[in-house]
């Protein structure tokens, strides 16, 4: 099968864009069922979820689904890898949501790949795991919303076989806590991280937002990862793989896309500035690099939240 599917889940919307015609429909059903299982297990808004019961002390980890221990172990590795800027206890209570959605989307995309899909997008509330391309010779393009100018797109990231996640204040205000101070992080308005795996990219974006401008050097030290940030005072910066002066063989960036009105035409998926490293830093350094992501200015800009283009 090929086509698109939209599924409400986890208080947001997940969208699937499948480009290979010979994928069995059951594969999509399996991926959708997985997302709902993750919601039922990890939702902080469901009193009966494993994570809620664990947080209240009603049960121990051994009584939870095995994936709960997997996520808790991952959160601890992320805490160490980020110098404490990622924490499942940033708000003072157990809350691993900074990594759960990215992990769930990456695994859903893996189910599609296991069924033979090589060209697809799985978009979980704007956090994307992208495989292959939308069609031969084309790259996926992701519009990054400007958190300071609602309805505009700050830039467009293009690439194949990549994950994209943004953390910021654009939708929910100053809600991301710096675990080291216990206060809302405020140096950035948004930061978008690009890498090969959404599990890590999602968590890195959360940690990087808490770091503020210091995230620039930190992301530079993570092979295979890049970042684009909008600061609270309206400045922008990008890591070396996304800057205009990058070597010819590296991804490049054009900033002329900033200020485009959303809704011009379908041509890229828009990543809203919503809230959001599987192993420690050493494991991240051995992760395969993303295939040529770039920031480009030639893509038409769709309305915020639209799906990956045809």
3D architecture notes:
This protein is of the alpha+beta class and 310 residues long. The chain has a single domain, classed as ApbE-like domains (T-fold, Roll). Helix content is 27%, strand content 25%. The protein has helices at 25-42, 50-56, 66-81, 97-114, 198-211, 215-220, 281-285, and strands spanning 3-9, 12-18, 120-124, 127-131, 140-145, 152-160, 162-168, 177-178, 183-184, 188-195, 226-231, 236-238, 260-261, 269-271, 291-296. The strands form 3 sheets. The chain has an 8-stranded antiparallel β-sheet with strand order 1-2-3-4-7-10-11-12. Strands 5, 6, 13, 14 and 15 form a 5-stranded mixed β-sheet that branches. Strand 3 and strand 4 form a beta hairpin. The longest helix has 18 residues, at 25-42. The chain starts with a strand and ends in a 14-residue tail after the last strand.
Brief characterization of the structure:
The chain contains 7 helices and 15 strands. The protein is of the alpha+beta class and 310 residues long.
- What's the arrangement of strands in the largest beta sheet? 1-2-3-4-7-10-11-12
Please tell me what the overall shape is: globular
Low-pLDDT residue spans: 248-292, 294-310
Might you state the CATH topology name?
T-fold
**Arithmetic mean pLDDT:** 81
Query: What portion of the residues fall into strands of 2 or more residues?
Result: 25-35%
Largest sheet: 8 strands, antiparallel
Instruction: Write down the Rg.
Output: 18 Å
Gap from first CA to last CA: 15 Å
H-E order: EEHHHHEEEEEEEEHHEEEEHE
CATH class: Alpha Beta
């Amino acid at each position: 099968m090929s086509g698109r599917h939209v599924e409400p889940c986890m208080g947001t919307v997940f969208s699937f864009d499948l480009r290979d015609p010979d994928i069995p429909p059951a594969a999509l059903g399996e991926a959708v069922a997985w997302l709902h299982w993750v919601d039922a297990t990890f939702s902080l808004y469901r009193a009966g979820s494993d994570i809620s019961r664990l947080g209240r002390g009603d049960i121990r980890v051994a009584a939870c689904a095995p994936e709960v221990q997997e996520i808790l172990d991952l959160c601890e590795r992320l805490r160490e890898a980020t110098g404490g800027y990622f924490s499942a206890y940033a708000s003072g209570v157990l809350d691993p949501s900074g990594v759960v959605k990215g992990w769930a989307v990456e695994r859903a995309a893996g189910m599609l790949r296991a069924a033979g899909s090589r060209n697809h997008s799985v978009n979980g509330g704007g956090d994307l795991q992208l495989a292959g391309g939308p069609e031969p010779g084309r790259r996926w393009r992701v519009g990054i919303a400007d958190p300071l100018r609602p309805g505009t797109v700050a830039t467009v990231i293009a690439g194949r076989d990549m994950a994209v996640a943004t953390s910021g204040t654009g939708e929910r205000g100053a809600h991301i806590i710096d675990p080291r101070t216990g206060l809302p992080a405020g140096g950035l308005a948004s930061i978008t991280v690009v890498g090969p795996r959404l599990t890590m990219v999602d968590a890195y974006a959360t940690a990087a937002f808490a770091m503020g401008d210091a995230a620039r050097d930190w992301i530079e030290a993570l092979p295979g990862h890049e970042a684009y940030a909008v600061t609270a005072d309206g400045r922008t910066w990008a890591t070396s793989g996304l800057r205009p002066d990058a070597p010819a063989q590296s991804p490049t960036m054009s900033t002329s896309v900033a200020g485009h009105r959303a809704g011009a035409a379908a041509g890229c998926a828009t990543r809203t500035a919503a809230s959001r490293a599987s192993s420690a830093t050493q494991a991240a350094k051995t992760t395969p690099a993303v295939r040529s992501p770039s920031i480009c200015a030639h893509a038409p800009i769709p309305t915020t939240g639209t799906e990956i283009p045809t």
